[in-house]
Amino acid sequence: MTSEPPVQRALEGVTVLDFSHLLQGPFATQLLGDMGANIIKIERAGSGDMFRSMTFFAKWVGGSESPNFLAWNRNKRSIALNLKSKKVHDLIMEMAKTADVVVQNFRPGVFDRLGYGYEDFKAVNPRIIYCSGSGYGEEGPYVDRPGQDMLIQGLAGLIDNTGRGDQAPVPAGAGLADQIGAMNMVYGILGALYWREKTGKGQKIEVNLLAGMLAHLAQEYVAVLNLGQDLKRPNSGIGHPGMQAPFGIYETKDGYVSIAMSPFKTLYEVLEAPELAVYDDLATLYDKRDEVWEKVNAETRKYGSAELLERMLAVDIWCAQVNDIRTAAEDPQVRHMNMLTTYEHPRGGTVRVVAPAIRMSETQPVIERPAPLIGEHGREILAEFGMAPDDIDSLVADGDMTIET
Amino acid sequence: MTSEPPVQRALEGVTVLDFSHLLQGPFATQLLGDMGANIIKIERAGSGDMFRSMTFFAKWVGGSESPNFLAWNRNKRSIALNLKSKKVHDLIMEMAKTADVVVQNFRPGVFDRLGYGYEDFKAVNPRIIYCSGSGYGEEGPYVDRPGQDMLIQGLAGLIDNTGRGDQAPVPAGAGLADQIGAMNMVYGILGALYWREKTGKGQKIEVNLLAGMLAHLAQEYVAVLNLGQDLKRPNSGIGHPGMQAPFGIYETKDGYVSIAMSPFKTLYEVLEAPELAVYDDLATLYDKRDEVWEKVNAETRKYGSAELLERMLAVDIWCAQVNDIRTAAEDPQVRHMNMLTTYEHPRGGTVRVVAPAIRMSETQPVIERPAPLIGEHGREILAEFGMAPDDIDSLVADGDMTIET
């Protein structure tokens, strides 16, 4: 757990009823929680958030905990309820009267049919901000299709844009469509909170993964749709299908380095390869990019990564090492930024996690709680909303609430 | 240009002095502009934003305009000023008295040395929210290194996580580190705006690309750093180094499809390949994932993409087609969502662009202006801040302001 001094919190006093699961919604509410919002994670009674049962490497942190779940659920308290119960429905609507935000990412229509649509919440609290997340929006031909990160990367064109042209395309090795969907939820919710301060009015926000991914491919779309040319993956280490050499990933004696947009003359001079001067105009660097890549790569292979970077950085070539996760965790700048920290989890032990990404001089986001167990805070949350201990007990006895300890 | 009816705007009345260039800052301020903030893009006199001179394919929209610039600069007005001029500095500080937000993404220290640090703006307006973007934060061993999207993807571990294990790693084919940086700026600025409504106080926000990229690899970091196992790129079409089969990209007769997490039994049954049952437990599907991928791929190749998807979707296998940008633009769901629209640009003509990604029931983000020419709105902006026409003329005459028409 970080032990920074207490700070003021940008979203102090904002209560979020978070019915979301998997990645998109939970990352969004974690970002709100990092800023001090009161995140009440409402999981399904019994097994809780589906992400608790998914993992990498077929392994579990502390033998039982999902790294994926641990990554996206800090700064939240959990209550696990049977949303199909009439008694629970009444309870949620009571909680909604004083809540500020509702977040959900069930498939379109599912949550509405249980009586938890925007209109249901608005009826008890017109100031509510209701944010729904989905794969493809709430209508249209794909409305009933499963919406998942890699599927969206493929539909939007990111996968076709990634990898080598002489081989199959590949997804980006992280859940970026989901995570961009989360950022879009935050964008909508915070915009709506600001507007509510001005007008007193709530509203509904719809976010979907496909639209978010398209917006993050805006320059690729603008190029293809306006320049009349398709993006073709290069047959070399060039780093983007629209880019000219030398932009790309190059081999060294002991690994790889990236070289981004840099004056080509500076590059061939620092590599002591003046014969590359014949390629030095924009059209040639694009048309012959794979050939140029091969020639530059033949030079970079003569160096170790550290030596090559030192030479190139000295003349302000835009370049960097290519880390894996473990070397990145030890990278001097990552360490300097304290971007890797820990929290204590009752089953996972001391869990290493990534710290909040932004710095705010007056309202620094901080980690105050680990990811919760299923329904861990059910009793305290219901007590805060005025429920009597006997009524809480009867919810548990009826099987409508799960409390893991 | 979209011709939707007038709407209320979430960020109506918020004025942003936007000194940013390239991608991170401009995408952030475009997102604020889409919500109705008054974005005043302050470019350098003369050549303007550096992104105006960068492009894909070595081609230009309308013969002169950068698709990259066009993608990230709608809903802004431009004024082009010589920030080194004392007269301009006085002018900016006058404008700052009534502005709400300052955004800049110069290399650390550069903007401060010109007299435009947070403390300079705070001195004239303590309510100002000052957001700086950088590659690596404002201090530490890499503070003077160039910060660029692909470099950050590599440093943070995304590149090492992407591609095939028997080949070199590859970057994601879009500027995702930059764009995630932009979303983090929006997250910080909107959080700070909300807090300012409650307290009256401004603050400084620091965003950097490396921290943002790390936060979007949170589940990969949590897995590697807590499970004691490295992420190794698979030697097949498996879609993520931490995932088991069948998660991945598969060949069909006429292209590729993605298959995400789905019950393996359902998959081998729908593929009529019951012999795959021997692999059906989590540990085996991880350990033998490349072998499983080959066997599943041998089945998927028997089908055309459309037929295969229809069969798999009927039993709720999580799957989708892999589009390129052009087929994605014609995809039925993308068309249904109206995610591709146009605006009219004086030199680029009718430019096809990606629409705002989120839907808000009361304050829908809309496109109201195309990307501006260099300094196009200089006169009207200065007039709004009370500057006399003669004084504006003398700024132009002195070479301190550029107006392109």
TrEMBL record, chains A, B:
> Could you name the domain of life of the organism this protein comes from?
Bacteria
Q: Which GO terms of the molecular function aspect are on file?
A: CoA-transferase activity
Keywords carried by this UniProt record: Transferase
- What InterPro entries is this protein classified in? CoA-transferase_III_domain (IPR050483), CoA-Trfase_fam_III (IPR003673), CoA-Trfase_III_dom3_sf (IPR044855), CoA-Trfase_III_dom_1_sf (IPR023606)
UniProt xrefs under PANTHER family: BLL6097 PROTEIN, SUCCINATE--HYDROXYMETHYLGLUTARATE COA-TRANSFERASE
> Know the name of this protein?
Crotonobetainyl-CoA:carnitine CoA-transferase CaiB
Q: Which organism is it from?
A: Bauldia litoralis
